[in-house]
Each structure stands twice: as structure tokens, then as C-alpha cells.
Amino acid sequence: QVQLVESGGGLVQAGGSLRLSCAASGSIVNIHTMAWYRQAPGKQRDLVALVTSGESTHYADSVKGRFTISRDNTKNTVYLQMNSLKPEDTAVYYCYVDSTNRQAFGYSRVQSWGQGTQVTVSS
Questions:
Q1: Could you read off the pLDDT of 28-60 as tens digits, one per residue?
Q2: What DSSP string describes 55-103?
Q3: 106 - beta bridge partners?
Q4: CA pair distance 107, 61, nearest whole angstrom
């Protein structure tokens, strides 16, 4: 129902920057919260940052002051600007979208995940 396409991951040295993008498509009527999560090997998936439909943001303590989440509602896209990257930021980053979608006989609320993009920060 909702397709999420992520891009922007890669390998970067400590102190460097990366920008992740996630574009949503499908029978979307309205997008509510958009977020980024990450999962390091052997660890659980944790919230990195989120932005609400009202543009309120929330960040994990570990990324505050270094990462910035933003959204472009005209493109149904969420971004994560990551600066001052550290080796401990290495993980697979997943996009998350909470949306209301048009169905054949009405509407439904759907939570969708991207396929994940690898971010590796070398020391």
C-alpha cells in the first residue's frame, strides 16, 4: 500500500556527514509521523528521530545536536542530516511512516517501514 525508498547511506570517516532520504508513495491521503530508526548488529531497533505532521521533532539523546530530521510534504519525503558522525552511529537506518491511505472502500491507518540503508562510520 505504501512504498518507501531510502537512499543516502554509505561509508564515512568519523566527523563526517551523511544525508538520508526516504520517499513515500502509494495511495496516501495524509502522512502523520515520519521517523528514522536504527539497528546495530546484535542490538534492538531504536528510535533516532521523529517529526510530526505539525513539524514537532524529537531526538534520541545520543544524536541531539548532531542530527536533524526534516520533511517535505510536497514530496512525501523525510530527511535525516547526520553531522559529526561517530563510529557508534554505525547501523542500518530504517525509515518509518505513519499514514492514512485510501482503500477500495474507505480509508485505513498504516505504519510502514523502509528496507533499511547501511551507515558505516570508520574511526
A1: 999 999 999 999 999 999 999 999 999 999 999
A2: --EEE-GGGTTTEEEEEETTTTEEEEEE-S--GGG-EEEEEEEEEEEEE
A3: 103
A4: 36
Which pLDDT tens digit goes with each residue over 16-31? 999 999 999 999 999 9
Query: How far is residue 68's CA from residue 101's CA, in Å, rounded to a whole number?
Result: 27
Please give the Cα distance from 19 to 42 (Å, whole number). 25
Give 3-state DSSP helix, strand, coil % of the chain, rounded to 5: 5, 65, 30
Quote the distance between the C-alpha of residue 66 and its chain's center: 15
Q: What is the DSSP letter of 115?
A: -
CA atoms of 123 and 21, how far apart (whole Å): 24
* CA–CA gap between residue 67 and residue 83 (Å, rounded): 6
